Amino acid sequence: MRLKRKGINALLALLLLVAFTAQPLLAAPKATSVKVTFVSAKLVENNHVGNEWRYEARAGSKEIEEGHSVTLTVKGSETIKLEVDVEEQDKIPDIGKGSSTIKLSAIKGTVTKTMKVTVVENRGRYSGNTATWEFAFKISKAS
């Protein structure tokens, strides 16, 4: 009787071990493709900061050109990080940076995300003046 009970206990322990180790495999988050489009970059205010500009945008680690899209693979509760850099082109460049995140669960249909980035003049008689840029993105789950 005692040997039979030990066998049953060992079998139950083995079943519990299998159930707990298999669960993460069964509950692994599903990967979802997300399309991120860099719609536009617009200088909305410029108080004597500069006239020649360079900017870039990224979704995740992928660079996006204005008017183009990238597709990202996102899992479960991960977020999508949008980043932008703006640089006024002169001997001592003025730089502005911005970033934003969006949760995968927040994407229902198409989501429009706008970001404002401020660049501050760092030298000269206009030191401290600002220029403001607005970046627009569209994010949707790829079909």
Description:
With 143 residues, the chain is an alpha+beta fold. The protein has a single domain, classed as Immunoglobulin-like (Sandwich), CATH 2.60.40. The protein is built from one helix and eight strands, in the order H-E-E-E-E-E-E-E-E. It has one helix at residues 2-26, and strands at residues 31-46, 53-59, 62-64, 69-75, 79-88, 94-103, 110-120, 130-141. Strand 5 and strand 6 form a beta hairpin. It starts with a helix and ends with a strand.
Briefly characterize the structure:
With 143 residues, the chain is an alpha+beta fold. It has one helix at 2-26, and strands at residues 31-46, 53-59, 62-64, 69-75, 79-88, 94-103, 110-120, 130-141. It has one domain (31-141): Sandwich (Immunoglobulin-like), CATH 2.60.40.
Keywords:
143 residues; alpha+beta; Immunoglobulin-like; four-stranded antiparallel sheet; 1 helix; 53% strand
Treating each run of at least 4 consecutive H or I residues as one helix, how many helices?
A: 1
Main sheet makeup: 4 strands, antiparallel
Rg estimate, integer Å: 25 Å
Helix percent band: 10-25%
What's the count of strands? 8
Q: How would you state the average pLDDT, rounded?
A: 88
Structural class: alpha+beta
Contiguous runs where pLDDT drops below 50 for at least 5 residues:
none
CATH architecture: Sandwich
Tally of discrete structural domains: 1
- Which CATH class is shown? Mainly Beta
Q: Strands of the biggest beta sheet: in what spatial order?
A: 4-1-8-7
Within the CATH hierarchy, at the fold level, what is the topology? Immunoglobulin-like
Q: What is the distance, rounded to the nearest whole angstrom, between the alpha carbons of the first and last residues?
A: 60 Å
What's the shape? elongated
Q: How much beta, percentage-wise?
A: over 45%
Order of helices and strands: HEEEEEEEE
* Oligomeric organization of the protein chains: single chain
